[in-house]
Amino acid sequence: MTLNVERIRRDFPILSRTVHGKPLVYLDNAATSQKPRQVIDALSAYYSRFNANIHRGIHALAEEATAAYEAVRERTARFIRAPSPRAVVFTRNATEAINLFANGWGRSRLGPGDEILLSEMEHHSNLVPWQLLAKATGSSLAFIPITDDGRLQLDRLDALLTPRTKLVAVTHMSNVLGTINPVAQLAERAHRQGALVLLDAAQSAPHLPLDVQQLGCDALAFSSHKMLGPTGVGVLYAREELLEAMEPFLGGGEMISDVQLTSATWNEIPWKFEAGTPNIAGVIAFGEALAYLERVGMAQVRAHERELTAYAFTRLRELDGVTLYGPPGDAEDRGGAVSFNLEGLHPHDVGTVLDAEGVAIRAGHHCAKPLMRRLGVPATARASFYLYNTREEVDRLLDALHAVQAFFGRPAPARPVR
Ligand code: 7TS
Question: Hey, is 279 helix, strand or coil?
Fold first, then answer.
C-alpha cells in the first residue's frame, strides 16, 4: 500500500508556507521533522484543559495530567516493542538519554583496561559522552572502521570485540551516510563476548519499524522532535534489570523514595531517572506523534522513503561532478539521509542558493566531524526525507541544484592525469 501523501501533507500546516516567495520544500528532516496539527493541538489542549504537575497532586487536573503522561510511556513501549513501560525513561532528547546511560551504567562499572567499542560514523552525541566516561573511569575507546561506501567493516569485529569490551555503542542509522547498520548481528556477536549494546536510534526510530527485542539491544536512545513530536522530549529504553542496577544520573524531586539530610533512597524505575518536573506537555504531544505514525504504519513510511531515496539518487547522478556518500540509493541497508557534494562548490554555498529557491537542506559537518575526516571532506550537503515528501519535491531539489551550478558555473571537465 502506498501512502496518501497529499492527505498527510494537509495535516502539516507549515508545509503550505512559502520561503523567499517560493513554496517550501523541506528536506532537512534528519535535523528535525515538521509537526502535524494533531501534535500542535495536543500541546495547546494540555495547557488549556488539564495543565497540572504530575505524580503528586490529589486533584482532578493532576490526575488527568499524570494519566495522560503515563499513557504515553505505555504507547512508547509498544512503539519499540519493549516488554514493559518500566523500561522507558523520558529525557530531554537522544543526547541526554545516551548521557544518562553512560553515567548511570558506566561510572560505577568501568575502569582501566575496559573498552567501549564505537564506530567511525557516530554523531557527536554518541561519541563525546563516551569520551567523558572514558576519561572519568580510565577506560578506553575503540572504533569499528567504515568502508568507502559507508558501511561498518564487520570483518574487523572479531579483532575489535575482546573480553575487555564492556559496551558496544553504535548508531542504528547514520545521519550522514544513511547507512542502516546490521544491529541484530552486531548484538549477537557483542553478547557472545559479554558486552552490552546501546543503539543510537535518533535516525531510525522516526523511519523504520523498531523492535528492541528482535534487535537484541540492551539500551536504545531517540528523540521525539525527529519523529513528528515536540522538541524537549527524548527516550532512553534499557532492559529493566539494567535500569534497576543503574545509579541515578540527576538528583532531585520525584526520583527519590525517602530523603534524609545526608542521604536518600531511590524511587522505582523508571521514575528513578526522571528528576524534577518533566516536559509534561511535550511528552503528551509526543504520544500524538506516535499515534500518527502508528496510523500511517511504519512499514509504509519506510517503503515511501525507500522509493524517494532511490529516485533522488537517480536524479542526483545527472549532475556534473556530483559525489554521493553512503550505500547506493536502492540499497536495503540505507535510509533517506542523502549526503552529496558538487565539485568545486562549498556545501554552504549550495545550501544558501537552495534556500533562495525555497529548498531547505542542511550543509555542514552534521555533528559528525570524525566521519567528515574519514570521508576526506570538511562538510557535505544533505537532503533528508520523511513521509510527507514527494517526487515533485525531489524534482524541485534538482531544479535548484541545476540553478546552483548555473549560478556558480559548472566544474571544469577533469583533465586526464599523466
Ligand atoms: N544521534 C544521531 C544519529 C543524530 O542524527 C542526532 C541528531 C542525535 C543523535 C542527537 O539528537 P538530539 O535530539 O539529542 O539532538 N542529528 C542531527 C542532524 O543530523 N542534524 O541536526 C541534528
Answer: coil
